[in-house]
């Protein structure tokens, strides 16, 4: 096979720079709905913008994990094909707004994100809604596991990091289902960082050097789990996931789709290979990226591009002419 053919088989750096336009568009279109109390309107605006921009990108992307089924359009549904059809064939995990409730309430840490990898490499966990996740930086490799108790994980990570347990901070989604985890973290002597919504940013912050979060624990959405894995592979962190079906019916549906319910999925099982790209743009201000800001006639955005193949983290600050976005 010649070099030109190889170039069009897999996601590359040029594709990464094109994909950020889609998350920028979704984030900007959501801005009029920030703090307006209507999360569906915010999400719909972001979905429409992301779909439109993805349609201009030279690739053939299949949404392996999206927000909803075809009947729930305008969501980017599982199995939807996006792109021009020319260029690399990719799997996609997408969330035009991770943190719709945050956006609607005007709170921080809402993001627009998507992840891509070679076709057939991303775990299709769409038949199960939730996943139990554990994310740390590289120090967690060989030290922590979903097979251990919360307290054991806290103590083992502290040992691996060479710091007192009392200085360990664990991010957890603030949900009633996590009260037991929260109690165990605090009983072990560590601190919590309770996340109102959007555990993708929490997982990435746990894996990045220089943040205040050391670990991210708990049950969140499967799309977020797979997307986080794509990001972690670029950062060099550690992630495990275990599917958490809501009931026997969902468990049976997952098993029929070939998923392993009690299996602990490692990063290379969630996203196989090293040719994945994760892109995120801030909707509202957060610790990972700043939110969209309009100043006079321009709109400012901040994005991250994480590319596993090169192990690079690129932070992109862009300025957009506001009049282009006010016109439809």
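Q: What amino acid sequence fits the structure above?
A:
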């Amino acid at each position: 096979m010649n070099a030109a053919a190889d170039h069009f088989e897999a996601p590359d750096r040029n594709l990464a720079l094109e994909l950020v336009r889609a998350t920028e568009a979704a984030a900007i279109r959501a801005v009029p709905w920030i703090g307006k109390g209507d999360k569906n309107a915010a999400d719909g605006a972001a979905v429409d913008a992301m779909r439109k921009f993805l349609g201009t990108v030279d690739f053939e992307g299949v949404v392996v994990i999206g927000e909803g089924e075809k009947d729930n359009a305008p969501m980017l549904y599982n199995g939807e094909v996006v792109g021009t059809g020319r260029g690399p064939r990719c799997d996609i995990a997408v969330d035009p707004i991770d943190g719709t409730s945050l956006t609607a309430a005007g709170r921080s840490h809402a993001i627009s994100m998507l992840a891509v990898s070679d076709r057939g490499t991303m775990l299709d966990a769409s038949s199960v809604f939730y996943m139990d996740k554990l994310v740390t930086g590289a120090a967690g490799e060989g030290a922590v596991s979903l097979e251990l108790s919360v307290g054991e994980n806290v103590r083992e990570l502290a040992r691996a990091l060479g710091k007192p347990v009392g200085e360990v901070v664990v991010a957890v989604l603030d949900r009633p289902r996590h009260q037991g985890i929260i109690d165990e973290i605090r009983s072990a002597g560590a601190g919590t960082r309770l996340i109102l919504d959007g555990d993708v940013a929490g997982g990435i912050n746990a894996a990045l050097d220089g943040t205040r979060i050391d670990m991210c624990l708990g049950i969140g959405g499967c799309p977020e789990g797979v997307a986080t894995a794509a990001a972690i592979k670029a950062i060099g962190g550690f992630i495990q996931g275990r599917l958490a079906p809501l009931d026997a019916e969902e468990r049976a549906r997952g098993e029929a789709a070939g998923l392993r319910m009690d299996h602990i999925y490692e990063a290379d099982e969630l996203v196989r290979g090293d040719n994945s790209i994760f892109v995120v743009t801030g909707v509202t201000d957060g610790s990972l990226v700043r939110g969209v800001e309009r100043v006079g006639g321009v709109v400012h955005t901040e994005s991250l591009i994480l590319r596993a193949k090169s192990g690079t983290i690129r932070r992109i600050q862009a300025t957009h002419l506001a009049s282009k976005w006010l016109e439809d």
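Q: And what stands out in the fold?
A: The chain has eleven helices and 14 strands.
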